[in-house]
Amino acid sequence: MNKITLKESSRYKLPMGVLSATLLSDNDSLIAACMDGVYRSSLSKREQPRRLYTHDSYVSSVVALDDGVIVSASYDGNACWFDLNAEREIRRVKLHDFWSWDMAVSPDRTKLVSVTGQYLAGGYKYEPQPESEPSIRVVDALSGEILHSLPHVPSVQSVAVSSDNQFVAAGNLMGDIRVYRLQDGELVAKWTTADFTSWGIIKSHCFLGGIFSMQFTPDGKELLLAGMGPMQDPMAGNGKQLWQKWAWQETEPKLVDQTHEGDAGEGLMETLAIHPSGDYFAMGGRLRGGEWNVALFDLATGSRQAVLKTGCRVTQAIFREDGSELILVGSQGQPEKLKDGNFPDFGRVDVFAIG
């Protein structure tokens, strides 16, 4: 395929760092899950960012069921349904005793899946303790009823639903991936990749890293994973910018492709998004060393097609439905001091035209 160009078309700030976002069908209204609540803003800047409601901790995820209802999940373990038109809360459901690390919605908008888990050393090798609560909750998106409570090994940090609404995948700190059938909660595949997990031998002796984002390919046959390669110093953040693609439906799941030699620098990758054409995908996150913190890769060949150095942490990448633009949300630094009674704005939204 021809090389792709990315040209910045818009940039603006939100008061707090953004951990997740969703774009409504008008292709302008952006709902952002931030450290201090859920905000509504617009890419055209026709309305100023304003906070709609809060949780008791960071808001880790937000999804839209339709233009009238959104659902957010938080480190407080709750999911909140919110009516955008009436601007009122519909319900809150306690999903976890610990954090909701990530939440996904099925493409048909009928089911939500949230993942949790706290890493606590379970033995002298610092292997994780078994879960103290179900690591995966499958929820009816309309009623809020918990449909399935599924097991995994904590901490489970990423989740994705296949485009045909049939399967849910979840990945954890140790590089363990489990795929369940969404309808009945049956386990259909499990495997481990050690390439995203570090054992610290400097400063901190513990496991860290893991799989921070995942996406099924459009045909559902393969699964993309993102994170960071192994490090010896847990504080350094200098692991390789890493993606992998797995053929998960094989009798033994098979690694098909991964970040090519020479294509990556250093830094934690936190988000994956597949372009509506199905031809390529975006991966983004933080930059520790190298020339990019966001890049586009050919989905078939894995070749790198375009790069961006945004100067900020990217927590989620979103493509417009027509594929014309790439939207990146995240944060730039984190203010240590109040300024005139408020923290300076450090949430970021960047929009890039795709050529």
UniProtKB/TrEMBL annotation:
<dbReference type="InterPro" id="IPR050505">
    <property type="entry name" value="WDR55/POC1"/>
</dbReference>
<keyword id="KW-0677">Repeat</keyword>
<dbReference type="InterPro" id="IPR036322">
    <property type="entry name" value="WD40_repeat_dom_sf"/>
</dbReference>
<dbReference type="InterPro" id="IPR001680">
    <property type="entry name" value="WD40_rpt"/>
</dbReference>
<keyword id="KW-0853">WD repeat</keyword>
<protein>
    <submittedName>
        <fullName>WD domain, G-beta repeat</fullName>
    </submittedName>
</protein>
<dbReference type="InterPro" id="IPR015943">
    <property type="entry name" value="WD40/YVTN_repeat-like_dom_sf"/>
</dbReference>
<dbReference type="Pfam" id="PF00400">
    <property type="entry name" value="WD40"/>
</dbReference>
